[in-house]
## 1
Amino acid sequence: MLFRSALLALEKSFTGQQAVSLSYVGQAGRSLLRQEGISQPNADFSGAFLLTLNNSRSNYHSLQLQFRRPLSSRLQALFNYTWSHSLDNASNDVVQAISSTVISAERDYAPSDFDVRHSLSAALTLTIPAAGRNAAVKSLTKDWLLESVVVARSGFPFNLTVPTAQLSGTNPRPDVVMGQPVWIGLTNAPGGKTVNPAAFTAPAPGQQGTEGRNDIRGFGLTQVDLSIERKFRITDKLNLHFRADAFNLLNHPNFANPLGFYLGPSDTTFL
């Protein structure tokens, strides 16, 4: 296995301790492990023979932008955005064992299972000033801290399979029906949409469908977390911290990708 990496970064500082950085990060992998299957190569094997070869490759490119600045003595902020693209023909060492005569390593070169095209994260920290001039009120309201983390990213890719068909011991992908949208609205489906079953059809027996590997972009993720903290000074060297955390503060639903089983032109059970 062979890996090559590249990194190029530029950073500019401004007044007020603020800074912007722009980075390119890339990596190329060659001769990576990929498992293939040979269906009963001779009479000594009752099933498929699994063959691990070094015929997989990967490429990763990303552009990373970061802005950081203490906006004031009480408020600090950090912002990160990454555009990236990860491509390979095997995202892990253990994949469905399909013969290269059926699905070549080159044909399956597509977005990685973990490919995220857009990723954004931000963090804010706010020190809350004590309220009023009354000693009791100031004692109750001082040393409070608010922290928030915001995360948003695009979805992971996936493709459909036809569980009712067999291809060298595994399930093939369906054929694509041209002119049909991949996603359609469905009010009772998670996220309000489903993969359009009319956009696909079962392939001919013993054939791999025309749908490409990981050609459908799945559901993204958005989450806002909030924490509140109070520091109680007991001695000069001893403090007591009270902290409460709220994860997914806005109760925003985040869905995993569907199983992607194609069962027919009108069946959305697993889509």
## 2
Amino acid sequence: MEFFRNPNIDFLGKKWYFLAFSLVFSVAGVLSIFFWHGIPLGVDFSGGTLVYVKFASQPNDNAIRASLDKAGLHQARIQRFGQPANNEVLISLEEKETSEQALDRGKTQIINALESNAPGGKQDLNNAGSLTILNYLLEKDPLHLGTDANQRYSALARAITDYRDKTKGGVLHSLDELKAVVPGEVVASLQDGFFLSDFGVRNVEIVGPQVGAQLRRQAVLAVLYSLLGMLVYLWFRFELIYGVAAVVTVFHDTLITVGAFSLANKEVSLTVIAAILTLVGYSNNDTIVVFDRIRENLKLLRREKLSDIVNKSINQTLSRTILTAGLTFLTVLALYLFGGEVLNGFSFALVIGILIGTYSSIAIAAPILVAYQEWKQGRGKRPLAVAAESSRGREKVKVKA
């Protein structure tokens, strides 16, 4: 299948427009990184406390943020996760201690912030532990068990929390729902001492600052190692200039992608690093396709200028590039639009990366080869076309031997 039949677009003739486009977006990203938003690091890298909250109805992000601000949690980040019907929110706090007290403190801060209209003298059953419920039942003794109450009420307290967390997803809508698992006298007693908020804290996690720093270092090393491996491979497979052009191209793609995160003030997490590494491989693959066609045409069209050979090679691979990039882009676009909040950063990086990676294989990598040849010719050195011809001669000698 071909979109174009014998296209003849002068891509190299538009290289200054491409350069201006890349400079605008690269400079905007660099300015944002160093002077505006920086690189917004997620809790994975910066450290902090993650509090997972489930709401009884569709949560209002603005109302949640207003409640957190009123409680003094001004730097908290709010992020939807899971299926929209689950009404789940992830709240990130800057609490960076790794103790059990920090876990309890993070949970308590969120509960106190969201329970702004709690009735006085009552406890929140949606956020009460089994020990709290047990102590209340032992004090009230609604079943009149006397000295044998501890074991019985322990089982009832566990039954209540299990029903709330496992059956009802962490949030009870009415105390009457408990009549299915505990006696009516217990439910009546609970109504005197407990109320139901419209949310429940499901889990609390902590990422310490040392772990975050280690993850940052490993993420940077992973990207650098991938670039180094790509340079060595292309140096061995083609020539050094091919590897240099590909590395510069991927660095260009990565810079614009990270700059887009900074400009949009979107968090960079571990999944985003995975997307950037995927982008490195994808952009490299597209660049190699163009380079391989250039190398083939260097052997067939030895008398033509390198710029004409490069233009012809790009045009010959244009249909393949559009088909591959277009189908991949539609996939990641669907992931970005419908994949939910958890995959938003990952899919956003791929959407930007595929567009820029496809563009740079044509607009950045190929002009670098031509610029290199012009520089070598200016210094009186052998151009790429002659090098390819000599390489072809060596291959023939090896075959005869």
## 3
Amino acid sequence: STLPPYQLVGEASLLENLQSEDGSVHPPARATVVATAGSYYVRWPQSAFYELQQEEDSDFGYAIQLMIARTLSSKLSAARALFIF
């Protein structure tokens, strides 16, 4: 599939990491991402995401949670569309 700009990749692993007691769960990747030439991306270790999510009233945390929710909602809608007759 092709992702539009500014999309989050790896949201399932992030959620599993955030649900672990101390952020120590680092599940293996479920997909391989190939970027076209000239693409830009940002990559953070899961431990950094975990620490940023633990900060109280973190704008970053709220923004990431919103991105995860939107990404999962979009994937669910696409999957449901495949099964509607």
## 4
Amino acid sequence: PFQYCEVLNLDDCKEPRDAGELRVDEDNPVQLSVPSAVSRAPWRLLRVYENPIDTTVTYYAPKTTLAVTIPTLDPNRGRLTGLAVQLLTLVQDQDGQEFALPHAEWSISTVWP
């Protein structure tokens, strides 16, 4: 993983920053499959494009999605430069507000010809 935190203590993290590399081209989309252990929990997919401000985030509910097809070229955002799968944990702040934070992340950088 790129990062892994203990679910009961999100401040206790290991951050090896390991990222995979995937050769891509504009003609073939990426088929991303996640293991059932990931799909059983809420997770999100980050798609990073040439301009990082154009990063897109998609949330997936538990037990709904095992695979996603991702075009490598977006007409508005440009080339896909990376992907990240994040496993989420619901947390509550001191004011009682609930939100999801990643406790695990796997990252892939794309390599263009």
